[in-house]
Design goal:
Length: about 1000
């Protein structure tokens, strides 16, 4: 059959190469099938306004408005079978008419795979992407003046070729390889091009033209760390290695947990890791990286490995010297980065900093006085490090309002952490330790009740032995080093025990189990798409398009040579531009690379305006390609979709858990093997949820049902939901509830304190808020309670806890409100109802100084300083005893004491940290009261009689003498960290009373207030 190219428009623009007889016959057939009547009702279809472009029926389109003549939303009408309404009269008012429902098509058998490298296709070839319209009586291939490039959709047919016109080659003669351009053809209309042309056009090679303009803007990116909770936000993230969420979980699973590789007498997880943190980073890499071949994933430089602040690969020093400060990345896009941890999706590690990268932290010096040996640029200036000045926003999860400049010294900023406890999310605090729930990892290790199940680990020969401690996770030695090792594959196929410990960690060699774990932690960290839409990136971060990066090794331009099978780039995996591919593209590679793109990749900001047209090998949904183009055969409704692999793929593309649940129940009920399963089990929801994803899943219906069987026969929930323990959104005042009794008048909504549980305490359910407050009042060392309204979960916090505002769902308060306290004279309110003695008036909660002076790091053992208050005063005393110490920082619960010099930097918002200076003046206590206390609670200061003044002077002298002899330093109190240092007393209560009395009389005045009743320390 010879190719016939018809034009249904004006005769002078008709481009034909068949005989005149054939031309007349075909033209008459087309005219009868599609009357040349313009629609006049839908302004979204520009073809209605053209004298040359008619809206007509397109047999390749399944419904109304899907692309007549390559234009989206142009209507169709006038087919022979009555499936669509007839074309309306041009003068009649158009009425919206829905087409009759099309009966579900019986799934077609999969066609055979084409050759990996098909022969060069001529226009009119049966294998041509345009073959269907060439062989159609009503769909000729022709020149479309609305289209800016070749192959962008003749009559709605993807990849159908265009020819003729001044801008395109002439249509070829079927009997000749080419023909000369036909004179007198019409050029593309500027009017229609402005309305319908994609934002970019195809280049000479046929590849779409894309830009790197997005690199001129800063980028938001979420970064994750697994670390000790006591160290969260205590030091600036600089010269550090971090990861995306999957990378962070992979690190814990492969490097931290394996029991048979670690000491049995350890008291913590390896490196003390007990939390996962999430930070929002805003960055812009410098011009030495962006738009150069150095760029990875378009926006990053190469990953730098750091240990203790020092880059460990000497070969990278010349690169750092050349490029300076940058955020680097090590992407795992090919999904084969670690044979111990198979993953169905890409993940990445990142590095940030480059401040004095050749030296460790203790040798760098300070940024104002760096070590002379620190790495320098070629011009002799020191490499500053990429963290902008004041680049850490301690008040909010979001970075500060001023974006990084992208210049050397200001490449990135970040906000404070949101974190979740590993003990909660992995299920340790749900296990029993005796008759109570386990408090933490250490409690579980030595006191877990289910000893028969958890007191086991592998020996190096693979045998299981009993131990006298409980194991969080262990993996069979055959699989520890590689999940692809033959011995491991044999073990997994045999069904023998491959994992021990908590069920949460089982299945490290199962990519789907790893994916499930990552989403569970993502949900705990507050990611809106986790366990809902399979997205681990906030939607607003997905609105940024990917740069073309055509000059680098990381191009995001889909190749015409691959028939646009790829490579594409998507931010859906972690926020970076990971490459992906579309499977089943006609003319594409025989074996499509992984990962596969999300189904909406062609509608993403990067590609939606390019007008890419893809032809699929098959319209069977199990071949996946037609899911991207919307051209699959078959019905996707869960109640009527065929119970086949095609039906599973069609329902999965709906991306709806309830739809998938109904479909799987139908399939199970029709199967002798699965119909007896408890299909209403709570795990059925998760079986259905993980049966679909944002990208197609390459598996059969039988595989999906087999996985459903595992979910429904599990004795435990497959997913356990936990929310974040700490939220750090923008700071706002916590509203006081007005419907609580007087004892709770000071309670605040949407405020919690962190760390959430003080040492030795664990969350317990309580009947109400009053009971939670009473529990705090009866617990030694409790300064605050925080109750989560969902479940009335009561948490107690100690002396060092820091208020966390915007903690949705929490209500917090002190054990006793200020108005109810009888002895207020010895207390001050540091904010958020944190009532402490005057000894701590000059100290700041949540402040941390660094770096430490040489040899100025020590630990304050609990046996020597039982309370946090005593430990804090001791740290301050050590600062005073050292001449070059200007500030101190004590951190709980690790009880570290750090002394710093005059050049130290302070970081705010650090949980468990308390700081103060080594010296203070004697004049700020009165101003403290005016500034800090409510007006109703401010003491009254007045001049007394001369007799009382003389007595006051005498007692002042006595107090100064006692302070000098007994403590060898002046007593004082102040509010600000910059201008105070307070007494350290052997007896905290004694020093509090002495300082109170001394302050009240030091300015020849006595305090007189209804709330005060001062007794002089006569002892």
């Amino acid at each position: 059959q010879k190719a016939v190219v018809l034009e249904t428009r004006k005769p002078d623009s008709m481009i034909l190469f068949p005989s005149e007889k054939e031309k007349d016959k075909k033209e008459a057939a087309v005219a009868a099938a599609s009357p040349a009547v313009r629609l006049a009702s839908d302004d979204s279809c520009p073809c209605q306004h053209s004298s040359k472009m008619r809206c007509f029926y397109d047999e390749s389109c399944p419904g109304l408005g899907c692309g007549a003549e390559g234009l989206e939303n142009c209507r169709f009408c006038g087919d022979k079978d009555g499936q669509f309404p007839a074309c309306p009269d041009a003068d009649a008012k158009q009425e919206a008419v829905k087409p009759a429902a099309k009966p579900a098509a019986k799934p077609a058998a999969k066609p055979a795979e084409p050759e990996a490298k098909p022969a060069k296709l001529e226009l009119g070839s049966d294998a041509s992407p345009c073959a269907s319209c060439l062989h159609s009586k009503t769909l000729p291939c022709f020149y479309d003046e609305s289209c800016p490039g070749v192959g962008c959709g003749a009559q709605g047919h993807k990849n159908c070729r265009f020819c003729g016109g001044e801008q395109f080659p002439a249509c070829p003669d079927p009997n000749a390889p080419s023909a000369k351009p036909k004179p007198g053809t019409t050029a593309i209309s500027a009017k229609h091009a402005a309305v319908t042309a994609p934002a970019t056009s195809s280049g000479a090679s046929g590849d779409p033209q894309m830009t790197d303009d997005v690199l001129d803007e800063t980028q938001d990116f979420d970064i994750y760390r697994c670390m000790a909770g006591s160290a969260v936000d205590t030091h600036a993230m600089e010269d550090d290695d971090i990861a995306d969420l999957t990378g962070a979980l992979k690190y814990v699973h492969t490097e931290i947990l394996t029991e048979h590789l670690q000491s049995p007498i350890r008291q913590t997880r390896k490196y003390g890791i007990d939390v996962v943190t999430r930070h929002r980073m805003k960055f812009k890499n410098p011009s030495t990286v962006q738009k150069t071949p150095n760029a990875l994933q378009g926006e990053f430089s190469q990953f730098v490995t750091y240990d203790f602040g020092k880059a460990t690969n000497p070969a990278q020093m010349p690169i750092i010297k050349e490029q300076g400060d940058f955020v680097g990345i090590a992407p795992c896009t090919d999904l084969k980065c670690d044979v111990r941890f198979p993953s169905p999706k890409p993940y990445s590690w990142l590095s940030m900093g480059n401040w004095c990268p050749n030296l460790s932290w203790d040798k760098k010096g300070t940024k104002s006085h760096p070590n002379p040996n620190c790495l320098k640029h070629s011009d002799g200036t020191f490499i500053k490090g990429g963290l902008c000045e004041n680049g850490f926003n301690h008040q909010s999860f979001l970075p500060g309002p001023e974006p990084p400049t992208g210049e050397q010294g200001c490449v990135y900023k970040y906000g404070k952490a949101t974190m979740v406890k590993l003990d909660d999310v992995v299920g340790i605090t749900s296990e029993f330790c005796g008759k109570r729930r386990c408090k933490d990892w250490l409690d579980f290790r030595f006191n877990c009740s289910n000893r028969q199940h958890y007191q086991r680990q592998f020996m190096l020969n693979g045998q299981i032995k009993s131990v006298d401690y409980c194991v969080e996770f262990d993996i069979h030695p055959a699989c520890e080093a590689s999940c692809q090792a033959p011995a491991c594959l044999d073990l997994l196929r045999s069904g023998k025990t491959a994992y021990l410990g908590l069920p949460f960690w089982h299945g490290r060699c199962d990519p789907r189990a790893n994916d499930r774990r990552v989403e569970t932690v993502g949900f705990a960290l507050g990611l809106p798409g986790a366990l809902k839409s399979h997205l681990l990136v906030e939607p607003k971060l997905l609105q940024r398009s990917c740069p073309a990066s055509k000059a680098s090794s990381w191009s995001c331009v889909p190749l015409a040579a691959l028939h646009f099978a790829g490579p594409y780039c998507t931010r859906s995996f972690n926020g970076a531009c990971d490459r992906c591919y579309i499977p089943g593209v006609a003319g594409g590679p025989a074996e499509v690379q992984r990962p596969w793109c999300p189904l909406d990749v062609l509608q993403s900001p990067t590609y939606k305006d390019l007008g890419l047209k893809i032809t699929c090998k098959s319209k069977s949904a199990s071949w996946h390609c037609c899911l991207y183009t919307g051209t699959c055969d078959g019905d996707s409704a869960p109640g009527t979709a065929p119970l086949t692999d095609d039906g599973l793929a069609l329902v999965a593309a709906r991306k709806n858990t309830e739809d998938m649940k109904n479909f799987l129940k139908r399939a199970a009920s029709a199967s002798n093997r699965y119909r007896a399963l408890p299909l209403d089990h709570s795990n059925m929801h998760w079986a259905a949820y993980f049966a679909w994803d944002a990208a197609p899943l390459d598996r059969t219906l039988e595989e999906a049902l087999a996985e459903m069987e595992l979910y429904l026969t599990s004795e435990r929930p497959m997913v356990t939901l936990f929310s974040t323990t700490t939220t750090t959104l923008p700071t706002v005042a916590g509203p006081r509830p007005n419907n609580f009794p007087p004892s709770l008048a000071c309670a605040a909504r949407s405020v919690s304190f962190g760390p959430l549980d003080m040492p030795g305490s664990m969350a317990t359910p309580t009947a109400n808020l009053e009971e939670c407050q009473l529990k705090c009042r009866k617990t030694k060392g409790c300064f605050h309670f925080s109750m989560l309204e969902v479940g009335n979960s009561c948490h107690l916090q100690g002396f060092s806890a820091l208020a966390q505002e915007n903690s949705l769902g929490f209500i917090s308060g002190p054990p006793e409100c200020w108005q109810a306290k009888k002895d207020k004279g010895l207390l001050i309110d540091k904010g958020h109802d944190t009532y402490v003695s005057l000894s701590f008036a000059c100290m700041a909660w949540g402040s941390s100084f660094s770096p430490a002076l040489p040899g100025a790091y020590s630990t304050l053992e609990e046996k020597d300083f039982p309370s946090e208050m005593e430990a804090t005063l001791e740290c301050q005393k050590r600062c005073i005893d050292r001449k070059d110490c200007k500030h101190f920082t004590v951190s709980f619960p690790i009880r570290s004491c750090i002394l710093v010099g005059k050049d130290a930097m302070v970081t705010e918002g650090i949980q468990g940290a308390i700081s103060g200076p080594s010296k203070c003046d004697d004049k700020s206590m009165q101003s403290y009261y005016w500034e800090a206390l409510p007006k109703s609670e401010q003491p009254t200061w007045r001049t007394t009689s001369s007799a009382l003044s003389v007595l006051g002077l005498g007692m002042v002298a006595l107090a100064i003498f006692m302070s000098t002899v007994l403590w060898r330093r002046p007593a004082c109190s102040a509010r600000s960290v910059q201008s105070c240092a307070c007494d350290h007393a052997e007896s905290v209560e004694r020093s509090e009373r002495l300082m109170e009395w001394h302050q009240a009389t030091s300015s020849h005045e006595l305090v007189e207030s209804r709330a005060w009743d001062i007794e002089l320390p006569m002892e």
